[in-house]
Amino acid sequence: MEELTLHERWRLFVERGKQNMHVIFAMSPAGEDFRRRLRVFPALVNCTTIDWFLEWPKKALLTVAT
Fold it and tell me: Reduced to 3 DSSP states, what percent helix, strand and coil does the chain have, rounded to the nearest 5?
């Protein structure tokens, strides 16, 4: 197999990074700070997936664990 040029290696690195990068951004939804951030940065809602993690009942935790 022939050797890749520096430019080709960089392009491959960037492509793999785009495919495999995941960013987790966590913040509390309580309070005025959250609402202010959403007004200033609307993409936090429009361009993301939001998972709300609330307290689970004990039975649900045991079911998932088994």
Answer: 55, 0, 45
In contact, 63 and 56? CB cutoff 8 Å? no
Q: For the whole model, what pTM was predicted? A: 0.41
- Amino acid in the structure at residue 49: T
51: which 2 tokens? 């998972």
pLDDT digits (tens, 9 = 90+) for 1-59: 578 899 999 999 999 999 999 888 888 878 898 889 889 999 888 888 777 778 888 99
For residues 22-52, one letter each, b for 16 or more C-beta atoms within 10 angstroms of the residue's C-beta and e for the rest, the string is eeeeeeeeeeeeeeeeeeeeeeeeeeeeeee
